[in-house]
Amino acid sequence: MRVATKICGLSTPETLDAAIAGGASHVGFVFFPQSPRHLTFDLAAGLAACVPARVGRVGVFVDPDDALLAKAIETGRLDALQLHKVRGERAAAIAARFRLPLWIAIAIRTRADLDQGRGWKGIAQRLVYDARTPAGALPGGMGLRFDWKLLDGFSHPLPWALSGGLSPGNVADAIGVTGARMVDVSSGVESAPGVKDVDKIAAFLQAVARS
Ligand SMILES: O=C(O)c1ccccc1NCC(=O)[C@H](O)[C@H](O)COP(=O)(O)O
């Protein structure tokens, strides 16, 4: 079965088209003003209108309030919400109010970090294993990877995606080592922070399709 791929942090029609044409299963729209990939609601609306029904639109948020979520869901026509730095109770309230699948980002540095995933059963639909970033840095999109061997033998409580520091050059290895059925990339398909590169997107998706 083909490995699903989310290309995250898209912000132009050309790079969105490259992701869709290359076979991405999901595209990620970031709603976090501190990020170089942050989308205005107008931009999100324009991009969302170009995404076919077979491709999922995932909104990426850092501890968002309801007003941001409501506007982003409406303009970005979101199919799922990826949440960073959100506690269980708050996430449950978001799920109850907005009735969309939750993808929870788990920041990984040690094997013990993986265990946090167990608390999300019954609240989230997917875990996104990403590398823990330094204090004060963005919680994602930093091109940092964790030790994939930490996933060896781990019994995953939920469907999961592998994220953090993936690139066209290492994604096949990453899939081979971890057995991931879904991968997520942002800076590995950029030429500068926030600037996606159509050739890198195509190369990444080709590498995934070959694995
Ligand atoms: O991408 C961002 O700017 C971002 C900002 C704040 C929270 C999350 C963010 N991205 C989340 C993602 O899903 C990225 O694809 C993931 O962290 C992997 O990024 P990278 O290591 O650059 O491939």
UniProtKB/TrEMBL annotation:
Belongs to the TrpF family. Pathway: Amino-acid biosynthesis; L-tryptophan biosynthesis; L-tryptophan from chorismate: step 3/5. CDD domains: PRAI. NCBIfam families: PRK01222.1-1. Its EC number is 5.3.1.24. Residues 6-207 form the N-(5'phosphoribosyl) anthranilate isomerase (PRAI) domain. The gene is trpF. This is N-(5'-phosphoribosyl)anthranilate isomerase. One of its GO terms (molecular function) is phosphoribosylanthranilate isomerase activity. It catalyses: N-(5-phospho-beta-D-ribosyl)anthranilate = 1-(2-carboxyphenylamino)-1-deoxy-D-ribulose 5-phosphate. Keywords: Amino-acid biosynthesis, Aromatic amino acid biosynthesis, Isomerase, Tryptophan biosynthesis. One of its GO terms (biological process) is L-tryptophan biosynthetic process. InterPro entries: Aldolase_TIM, PRAI_dom, RibuloseP-bd_barrel, TrpF_fam. PANTHER family: N-(5'-PHOSPHORIBOSYL)ANTHRANILATE ISOMERASE. Gene3D superfamilies: Aldolase class I.
